[in-house]
Amino acid sequence: MPNTRIFKLRRPVAVPTLRLPCLRETATALLRALSVGSASAQDIARIIVLDPVLVFELLLTDPLGDTEAACILDAITRRLEGIDSGLLQAWALRHIIQQPRLRVGGRSHRHYILHSQFVAELAEHLAHETGYPDPEQAYATGLFHDLGLLWLAEYADDYPQLLADTTEERNLTHTEWDRYGQDHADLSADLAARCGLPAGIADAIALHHADPQALGTAHPLVRLAAAAEELASYRGNQSAASLETASQLIQLEGSIIVSLLADTTRSVQAKARTLGIQADPTMMALPWNTSTDDDDTSELIDNGIARAALSAFSRSALIDAPTAWQDFNLASRLLLGMDAPVLFVKALGNDGLTGAANPAHPGLTQIHIAADDAHSVIAEAYRDKVETRFQSGQRPPGRCAADWQLARWLDSDGLLCVPWNNHHESGVAVFPCPSAEDPGLEVEQDLRKTLTLAATSRISERSADQRTRHELEESIARRYVDHARRIAHEASNPLTVIKTYLGIIDEKIHDATLKEQLNLLSDELDRVGTLIRKASDFSGITPTGPAHSGVSEILHDLRALYGEALFARRGIQFELRTSPSLPPAAITPGALKQILLNLFKNAAEAIPEGGKLTVSAVAGINANGSPCLEIRIVDNGPGLAPERVQSLFASGAKSSDKPGGSGVGLPVVRELVTANGGTILCRSQLGSGTVFQIFMPLAATP
């Protein structure tokens, strides 16, 4: 998520950009809807889009993506779907609680919000009337067009007087440029761009009050925004000149515009009534009055109950350990008006603070600060258990290089350090905070403490759980290794004895066929021994050896060894179709034997007495663009249902309904085939048998 500080602005004072007050009625309606618990994300979004400040905060926290359409309602709905209800309730309550720096009175604030909503709807309706292809862009332009005016009214000490001394907006902009280096429209455009709104919208916002004579060649969106502003002015001054100017900008007849103006006025009034506001049409004109002399100051909430509720909502939003970091980042922006912090942790038994792993700052884990460091404000916050501030000096690095470097990493000339302590760990959350920025008074400090403690408790719990799980996994792995080695040791002794007796028997008999079978059996014992040793060494499932197998020879060997035991004794015919001239396959002999033997055993379990198994191998197949050899195993057993075929290679799947038909080897079969670059397919139909096809790449020719 991008940094939300607005460094490019030539601000008269450095202030948190997320401290603009929304309309109290909007925040109350939002809190009421959230408290009911039955409102959908889109229902909540419809309340938020009535207030440009709430829209601004949410999009500044999670800006529009490059390919995301500028549909404000849809964008807000998507973001709400990923935010905890407790955090949204805390956000609404945070706006209801009285702001220490609040300078815009309630009446003037209502004028401002209604004016922005009015211009937004006018611009959208004008876009529809003129055939502009993206009316949502026009709406977003109108909603954000005067955000800079509210920003300056709230934070520039001399701005209220400047407004009182100016009676015309274009004269106001000249004074703003002289005094602040930009006007409120340019500031609005900059704020909109920070929310990810397209450059075309930012341009339309910046030019909405320009001389209409200069806008004849401008983009249509610019003319729509300027016309909507002229119509809003007409609603307040009833000047025919404003109506004529709007008509010239968008080339619409005056009668159409008047009708559209009346419809839009009624629409905005209806939306205002949902907030409990009776909107007079004159309230939708440009709001010049910003005095704090208001009629509802007594209704502002600033008491212990509201603050306790704010803390409760904040904590409830941070109860899910897996998402604690993500929620902490979001809460920092929405509730604190600050970018996400980094953490320094003092683990138990450690005497210093170490940076916690952070993807955005990979070198953080290499910064270590002694807890008794007299020069570090991070260490000071930890020792004294109070918030501390760091400000970069004119000549770096100052008294503590770690503090200075961390501020650079966080793209700030200052830091705000909040200590925390829980059952698992303790440490300091370090927020980027420009040195001239006012971090707020008691409400903000208590809220930072609450959020930091709630989030770090969850983060530490998750870390502790991960450590415990890792230790448990290591313990289980050690026990399993010991167990496997004991089994391997115990199994090797009888295998050695069997091999010895096979050698003795081989010396005493003269039947060539029997000697060959004894040799094959001895080879199989060697393969079993290799598998046991490999399992005890945990070096992988694929048997060792050259990736070069004579498929025809292996199939004949397996039929000689297992044809009688698996098939003939059960009355099953085993037919083998292969050629001694087949090219070798790129798989080790041990792995290929394991694959085929598992499939043969499953077939023997599935085929009824009197059935037949046909095994064939052919070359000259092209699979996935490579020459392959195909091994096909066909039985005329009962077959499998389609859903069984879909999950056949999953762990625990059964290849038949017969007792003992577990199909245990099928996941191993697929793993061995794919590990050697091959593909295995299964086709089956109830009552028609089953077919397995194995496509193995050919071995490279020497």
From TrEMBL:
Residues covered by the Histidine kinase domain: 486-700
UniProt EC number: 2.7.13.3
UniProt cross-references to SUPFAM superfamilies, sorted A to Z: ATPase domain of HSP90 chaperone/DNA topoisomerase II/histidine kinase, HD-domain/PDEase-like, Homodimeric domain of signal transducing histidine kinase
Keyword Phosphoprotein annotated: yes
Domain of life of the source: Bacteria
InterPro entries, A to Z: HATPase_C_sf, HATPase_dom, HD/PDEase_dom, HDIG_dom, HDOD, His_kinase_dom, HisK_dim/P_dom, HisK_dim/P_sf
PROSITE patterns cross-referenced by the UniProt entry: HDOD, HIS_KIN
Transmembrane segments: none
Annotated protein name in UniProt: histidine kinase
Organism: Zoogloea oleivorans
